[in-house]
Amino acid sequence: MTATIGQGTSRTQGPTQHLRFTLGLPHPVEKVWAAVATAGGLPGWLAAADVFEPRLGGAVTLRWFNGEADATHSGHFTAWDPDVVAEYTIDLHGRCRFHLEPAGGAATTLRFTNEFDGDDALRLDCLAGWHQHFEFLADALDGRPKDWSTWSLDRWRELRSAYENAKS
Predict the structure, then answer these.
(1) What is the DSSP track for the chain?
(2) CA separation for the pair 110, 74 (Å, rounded)
(3) What pLDDT, in 10s, does the model give residues 39-65?
(4) What is this structure's pTM?
(5) Neighbours of 86 (CB within 10 A)
């Protein structure tokens, strides 16, 4: 079995964007949890966890590597249930929730939601960005963490165009 990264979905409610992704990952919950909910796992696919206090109310500061200059965003954990839910709300990216479920054998279903205030352009940017990061996650889980020195906007642009064209 290989990772399945389906197209993200979204809906707009007032100024709030609601994004959703469901990933089928051929790895056990413990391995996926280590990648999405630990300071050691996040840099392989998402961002450096400069501050990471994994508990309800704990602080989190993530520093993204993709872009001209590192982008750092801070907030707090708003839900924490080990091996099941890691959720934090950070400036710019809003509420990010990772919900893990065993999917039989050594597989995991990851349900991700992201809620933030923003316009349609930001919605498309974030759909493409999360989709690309989830591709990086699948690679990291397979033993190939992202080499951030090779990152470029090319794949992100391709994904953003696909999301933009899907809405028409």
Answers:
(1) ---EEPPPEEEEETTEEEEEEEEEESS-HHHHHHHHSSTTTGGGTTEEEEEE--STT-EEEEEE-SSSS-EEEEEEEEEEETTTEEEEEETTTEEEEEEEEE-STT-EEEEEEEEEE--HHHHHHHHHHHHHHHHHHHHHHTT----GGG--SHHHHHHHHHHHHHT-
(2) 23
(3) 999 999 999 999 999 999 999 999 988
(4) 0.94
(5) 22
